[in-house]
Amino acid sequence: MSEIPFDIIARVPKLIIKLSFSLLKLKRRVRVCARKLKKSMVKGGMDKKQAKALAYRYEESLSIRKFLKNNILKDKGIPFL
């Protein structure tokens, strides 16, 4: 039989659900902050196109999928990431 206790296996789905909701809240907050960043850059005199590009890069730098791919799941061989 497996060396992993059944209690840990039973808690994994609950943990994944909790983490998913936390990460979705983080992503929503990042989107809101990127919009505020763009507005304040335009208000400060920056070109709209450049401000949009910088805000997009900010939003993408905090991508959950990229974070997992580059930091946590590196060299694990998971094909969907």
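the 2nd protein, sequnce then structure:
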Amino acid sequence: MTEQCKTNNNSLTEYRLASIEETLASINETLRTLTSLEAKHMETRSALERAFTEIGRHEERLRSIELELPTLKLIRGWVIAGVVSCTSLLGITVFKFVTLSAS
């Protein structure tokens, strides 16, 4: 082989090695990015699982409150009626006392 051919062969080999090194560096950077994204994905997945578990607990509490709500409304009505009745009775008593005292 001639000297020119060896030089061309060495240049081609160096070019190919440089190209391989660039490709490996690119693959390395891509793998680092992928690893970082995978870690963030796992964190997001666990956060979503916690959030949905908490939502499930809130839903159970809400269902129990919804079941008790009609009874609470009924009792509230009775309490308000009782307070109005007592206030009316007290008002009538005070009115009769004042009218009897004045006569």
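The first helix runs from residue 3 to 102. The chain has a mean pLDDT of 90.
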